[in-house]
Amino acid sequence: MRVFVTGASGWIGRGLVPELTAAGHTVIGLARSDAAAQALRGAGAEVRPGSLDDLDTLRDAAASSDGVIHLAFKHDIAFTGDFAGATDADRAAIETFGEALTGTGKPFVIASGILGVLGLPSGVVATERDGLADAGDGKGPISGAGGRMGNAHHTLALADHGVRSSVVRLPPATHGNGDNGFISTVVGFAREKGAAAYVGDGANRWPSVHRDDAARLFRLALESAPAGSVLHAVGDEGVPIREVAEVFASHLGVPAVSVTPEQAGEYVGWLGGFWGVDGPASAQITRDLLGWQPTRPGLIADLKEGHYFA
């Protein structure tokens, strides 16, 4: 297929582009900068200049492709407090792709999240069937998270309009060498504060997946996920945050410390609101549906390799 990919030069995209090209697909990557364009060409992708705000570009690229994978999200403004603005831009892009793909039967895969947006009681293992009854009210643990869940619902609804749409939910700990996401951010906070914090007894769990395993799942979704599928890119069902903090402490030469929920923001900044969330998740339905099987190291093994602390 000729596959249009947004976020192709980002963290997941850098794993997805070689995954797709190795499987014989041609990648057309959206690039909003010269550096992104150069990186994409170096990875063997074609370049479509533009950004998520260039809706005409998105529409044309989708119409001229055999499928679309939408990874991009305005993390730069989301992390500075305008999550609603980032969510609105995401929704506009998804609606534009939907218009271009309606009635074609082409695949459309988007990235979404697991932790903190499904509305499950603490400690309940989330499955692919959870979070489907309600598009959310924007009042989740992360400001605006309900709105992003609503975007996922809109994507799934495109299955009723001749689009083979699917949603891949990613864990917050989508890890690997070169990660610039949540785990690397918390490492930075631990180094800055001189302490690796966990909340309470640290028994709360985060699901995780290696970036390369997640990239493979996006390819499988593009190739064969049934219309309206929700998929979980989960390798480790739940890693206790205390274990994560203890690895941080060992590599950084700082103490691992227990903090209260109210103190968490002092130690992990904007991540404080959900560093103590217990949100394990399963991927059994995904594995049964697509035959996906993670093969790369789990989170603790990956941390112990040391690249996060170089």
What this model shows, in words?
The protein has 310 residues and is α/β, with parallel strands linked by helices. 39% of the residues lie in helices and 19% in strands. The protein contains twelve helices and twelve strands. It has helices at 13-22, 34-42, 55-63, 75-78, 83-101, 145-157, 182-193, 211-224, 241-252, 264-268, 284-290, 299-304; strands spanning 2-6, 26-31, 46-49, 67-70, 107-113, 164-170, 173-175, 196-199, 205-210, 229-232, 236-240, 256-259. It has a seven-stranded parallel beta sheet with strand order 3-2-1-4-5-6-10, with helices on both faces. Strands 7-9-11 form a three-stranded mixed beta sheet. Strands 8-12 form a two-stranded parallel sheet. Helix 5 (83-101) packs parallel to helix 6 (145-157). It starts with a strand and ends in a 6-residue tail after the last helix. The model is unreliable at 134-144 (pLDDT under 50).
